[in-house]
TrEMBL record:
This is Sema domain-containing protein. SUPFAM superfamilies: Plexin repeat, Sema domain. Transmembrane segments: none annotated. GO terms for molecular function: chemorepellent activity; semaphorin receptor binding.
Length: 552
C-alpha cells in the first residue's frame, strides 16, 4: 500500500501494518485539540479508583507502606511498613507470600516515651531501608522507637526471616519517622543520608563499609538539609582519565550563600567518589570528594527557588553514562502557589560543573557576617574534590589517604560550587497546577512511529498518578488515575522492567498498575487521541492494544 508514503512518514510497516495507518492519519488532528492553558493541562482521561483496575495490598491494622525493594530475581516485591515487612508476588501484589514482624518491645517504647516522644506514632518501628546484598540477602533498617537498628533478612522456602543481628542504625536510618532520608547500596556498602542523632541536628552523608566515611559537621557542608534521593553513576566505565564511580545525592537545605535576612531554601545535588577513603590527618574518615552545587528548576512565576522532592535516573542501556538523565520534581517554597514542576538534567552537565567548575569561597565582610563569592585564587593540585585518577596516580597519589593537606584543607572549607546546574532547555519540561507532585518514575518507550519517548509517571499528594509525555516540546497528560481512595500521598514509586508494572506505596497500602491500559480506548479514534505511545490500534482485531502485544 502507498499509505505511509502518502502521509510522508516512514514507519516499519512490516511490524505493525494496520497500526501505522490509523496512528499517522490522525496525529495532526490530535495536535489541534490542545488545551489553552498549559498550567491547567487537563488530562485527556481521568480514571476514578473503582475503574483503575489496580491490584491493591493492605493488611488490617498495618500502616505506612513506604519502603519498597524489587527482587525480580525472586519474583518478589518486598514492602516495608510500620513494624512489618511483606514479600508480595511481583506479578500480583494482592498475593502475600510471606511476612515478618519487627516490633519494638514494651521497654523500648517506654524509653522512647520517657524521652518525650509520642508512644502511638513516633515510638514504633518504621521500616526505612530495604536493600539487596551481594549474597542475595537483604539489609533492613527501622527507626525502632527513635533508636534505629539494622538487620539482615533472607527469603527461603516461602519464608521471610530476620537474623536478629541488631546492628546499630545510627547514621544509616533516621531516628524520626517523619524525617526524610535517602540511601543506596553499592557493592555491599550502604550509602545513607540521614540524621545521626536523637535530636536530628547532625545530618550526614555516610558510607558504611570496612572504612566508614562521612561528611563534616559544618554548616557549609550540610545546613538543615532535607534529603531526597540518591543514585550511582558508573563513571569509571571506559574512563580515559581512570576516574572513579560516583554516588549522587539530591537534597534541599538552607542556603549559606544567600545574602538575605530570611531563611532561603535551595535545591542541591552533591556527589562523592565511591572509593574515597578519607584524608590521613585533615578530613580523617571524612569525604575528600564531597562537592555540591545548587540545582535550579526555573518556574517563571516564582521569585523563590523551587524545592526538589524526588528524582529518577533514566539511562538508556545502549548509551554511555554521560547520556543518562535525571528527572526531578519540584514544589514551591511558599504555600502561596499550587504549581509543581518537572525538570530534566543531563548527567554530563552535572558532572562537568563538578569536574571543571569554579568553587565558592566564604569571605568575612563584617564581624559576624560571611559572604560567599566565586573563588578566583589558585586551586591546588590534585583538584579538590576530584576522584583519584591516572594523573594523581602518576604523581604517586594512589588513594585519597595520599592527598596533600592543601587539597584537603581547600575542600574542607569550600565544598560548594559557584555555578548552579541548569535543566535541559533551561526550563521545566512540565509545570502543572493542582495536586502537589510527590514522586516520579520515567520510562523510555519506542512508539509506533519508531521514535523513543520518555513517559513520566508522577505520584501526587492526592493519591493520583499522572502519566505525561512530551511531544515536540509540548506536554501532554495522557491520563490521571486515582490509585488511593480516600486520597492520600503517594510516598514511594517503583517500576519493574520485568513485569512492566508500576508499584506505589502510601500510608494505607500499596497499589500496582500496568504502564498502559490501552483497552480503555474503545475506538480507533479514541485510541489515537489518547496519544499513549504504548498503545496502537490493531485494525485486524478492532482493538486498542499495547504495542508489544501486536502480532504483525
Ligand atoms: C503512618 O500512617 C498514619 C495513618 O495513615 C499517618 O497518620 C501517619 O502520619 C503515618 N506516619 C508516618 C511516619 O508517615
Ligand atoms: C602508588 O602505586 C605505585 C604502583 O603501584 C607505587 O610504585 C607507588 O609507590 C605508590 N605510591 C604511594 C605513595 O603509595
Amino acid at each position: 500500500m502507498q499509505v505511509s508514503a502518502f502521509l510522508g512518514v516512514s514507519v516499519s510497516r512490516a511490524m505493525h501494518p494496520p497500526l501505522a495507518l490509523c496512528v499517522f492519519w490522525l496525529l495532526p488532528l490530535a495536535l489541534t485539540l490542545e488545551e489553552d492553558s498549559p498550567l491547567d493541562c487537563v488530562p485527556r482521561r481521568s480514571v476514578p479508583s473503582h475503574r483503575a483496575n489496580a491490584h491493591l495490598f493492605h493488611e488490617e491494622g498495618v500502616f505506612n507502606y513506604s519502603t519498597m525493594l524489587l527482587r525480580e530475581d525472586l519474583d518478589l516485591l518486598l514492602l516495608g511498613a510500620r513494624e512489618a515487612v511483606y514479600a508480595l508476588d511481583l506479578k500480583d501484589i494482592t498475593k502475600k507470600l510471606a511476612s515478618v514482624k519487627w516490633e519494638v518491645t514494651q521497654q523500648q517504647r517506654d524509653e522512647c516515651r520517657n524521652k518525650g516522644k509520642d508512644p502511638e506514632t513516633e515510638c514504633m518501628n518504621y521500616i526505612r531501608i530495604l536493600h539487596q546484598t551481594e549474597d542475595n540477602r537483604m539489609y533492613v533498617c527501622g527507626t525502632n522507637a527513635f533508636d534505629p537498628e539494622c538487620d539482615y533478612m533472607s527469603y527461603a522456602d516461602g519464608k521471610l526471616t530476620l537474623e536478629k543481628k541488631a546492628e546499630d542504625g545510627k547514621g544509616k536510618c533516621p531516628f524520626d519517622p517523619f524525617q526524610r532520608y535517602a540511601s543506596i547500596m553499592v557493592e555491599n556498602n550502604l550509602f545513607s543520608a540521614t540524621s545521626m542523632n536523637f535530636l536530628g541536628s547532625e545530618p550526614v552523608l555516610a558510607r558504611s563499609s570496612p572504612v566508614s566515611i562521612r561528611t563534616e559537621f559544618k554548616s557549609s557542608w550540610l545546613h538543615e538539609p532535607t534529603f531526597v534521593s540518591m543514585a550511582q553513576m558508573p563513571e569509571s566505565d571506559l574512563s580515559e582519565e581512570g576516574d572513579d564511580d560516583k554516588v549522587y545525592l539530591f537534597f534541599s537545605e538552607s542556603a549559606v550563600e544567600c545574602d538575605c535576612y530570611n531563611k532561603l531554601v535551595v535545591s542541591r545535588v552533591a556527589r562523592v567518589c565511591k572509593g574515597d577513603l578519607g584524608g590521613l590527618r585533615t578530613l580523617q574518615k571524612k569525604w575528600t570528594s564531597f562537592l555540591k552545587a545548587r540545582i535550579d528548576c526555573p518556574v517563571l512565576e516564582s521569585q523563590l527557588p523551587y524545592i526538589i522532592q524526588d528524582t529518577y535516573r533514566l539511562c538508556d542501556p545502549q548509551q554511555h553514562w554521560k547520556d543518562c538523565l535525571f528527572y526531578a520534581i519540584f514544589t514551591p517554597q511558599s504555600d502561596t502557589s499550587d504549581l509543581s514542576a518537572v525538570c530534566a538534567y543531563r548527567v554530563s552537565d552535572i558532572s562537568k560543573v563538578f569536574a571543571e567548575g569554579k568553587y565558592k569561597t566564604p569571605v568575612p565582610v563584617e564581624t559576624s557576617f560571611v559572604k560567599w563569592v566565586m573563588y578566583s585564587g589558585d586551586v591546588p593540585v590534585p583538584r579538590p574534590g576530584a576522584c583519584i585518577d591516572n594523573e594523581a596516580r602518576k604523581a604517586g597519589i594512589n588513594q585519597t589517604l595520599d592527598l596533600p593537606d592543601r587539597t584537603l584543607q581547600f575542600i574542607k572549607d569550600r565544598p560548594l560550587m559557584d555555578q548552579a546546574i541548569q535543566p535541559i532547555g533551561e526550563k521545566p519540561v512540565l509545570v502543572r497546577r493542582g495536586a502537589t507532585f510527590t514522586r516520579i518514575i520515567v520510562n523510555q518507550v519506542q512508539a509506533a512511529d519508531g521514535e523513543k519517548y520518555h513517559v513520566m509517571f508522577i505520584g501526587t499528594e492526592e493519591g493520583t498518578m499522572l502519566k505525561a509525555v512530551n511531544y515536540d516540546d509540548e506536554m501532554f497528560i495522557i491520563e490521571e488515575v486515582q490509585l488511593f481512595q480516600p486520597p492520600e500521598p503517594i510516598k514511594t514509586l517503583k517500576f519493574s522492567h520485568v513485569t512492566g508494572q508500576l508499584y506505589a506505596g502510601s500510608d494505607s497500602g500499596a497499589a500496582q498498575i500496568p504502564l498502559a491500559s490501552c483497552w480503555r480506548s474503545l475506538s480507533c479514534m479514541d485510541c489515537v487521541l489518547a496519544r499513549d505511545p504504548y498503545c496502537g490500534w490493531d485494525k485486524a482485531d478492532g482493538k486498542c492494544v499495547v504495542l508489544s502485544d501486536v502480532k504483525g
